[in-house]
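Journal club prep — side note

Before the paper discussion, L.F. wants everyone to see what a predicted structure for a comparable chain looks like in token form. Sequence:
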Amino acid sequence: MDRIHFALALSLTPGIGPVRAREILQAYPEPEAWLAGRAPLGPSTTEWNRYVQEASRLMEKHDASGIHTLALESPDYPERLGHIPDAPCLLFVKGQASLNPARSLAIVGTREASPQGLQWTQQWVQRLAPQGCTIVSGLARGIDTAAHQAALRAGLPTWAVLAHGLHTAHPAGNRALAEDILAQGGAWISEWPVGVGPHPGAYPRRNRLIAGLADGVWVVEAAIKSGAGITAHLAHQYDRPVFALPGRLNDVRSHGCLDLIRRQVAQLVVEPSDLAVELQWPALKEAAKQSQGPASHQRIWDVLHAGPLRTGDIERQTGLSSPQCLAALAEMMWLGEVQVQSGWYARA
């Protein structure tokens, strides 16, 4: 029995989690040695043989489905993830992506994202594109979806970290997006073998993978009690930088970010260059916009540098009258320079 077979059988054994499995594999190079010395509360020989047989069946299914199985000691296992104390002994991967990129950023947030949060995500990922960083997220609705989509549009690799086996992608509404991730050189990643469906206890375990796979975690929007908050706290425990947008005091979708900042779990960020500086990535260079349009276009472009704004804010910051502002915005939308979503204008 090889190490992958041994580790998979251990993962199927009740009462053995990632940390205990790691201890067993480090202490016992061969399964026979562990079986001979296991505690009385361990599985019986009959039970162990059943787990071994099930592991064999799963390995065949993985091979047939194009799912790669990476053991913790494999050179292809993600180095960042291997440094966390509860890293899974086995990682299942679908796709051809290298899991040891030069730079990676996890982007997480609420499923019920605001239009502004979605635009922030899109715009910041686009600004980070020159870094060539891999975008890590969980394929959920809202911020996760926006992060994956923005990465694909920017030509960046992106990984969907899933809370179930890789026989499918959940939620069903994002399966087309999940296939696009694979088609553009990304990956699906999970610690669960094929056939295991999503269940409540799997999501916190999935969140530790998101935190462990990245150089840092950016929380765009989140309630105080949320999966994004769990990911942020885990990243903080792993000594990974955590970043949060301050958001709006009267919006529950910002309360989690504000709480993370208040507790000094997350650093406040207001523009993409803050992330690059804190992660010690190369400084972002803002290319000057070359426009043949009137000066009003440039003034609007400049104030949209920090993120989406409503027309009233644009008018105040540019000094344009309401008719001038609306006319310029209409022209810039026609030129493809600006986009609008639910009343929020942003650079296209």
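L.F.'s comment for the group: Residues 1-64 form one domain. Keep this in mind when we get to the figures.
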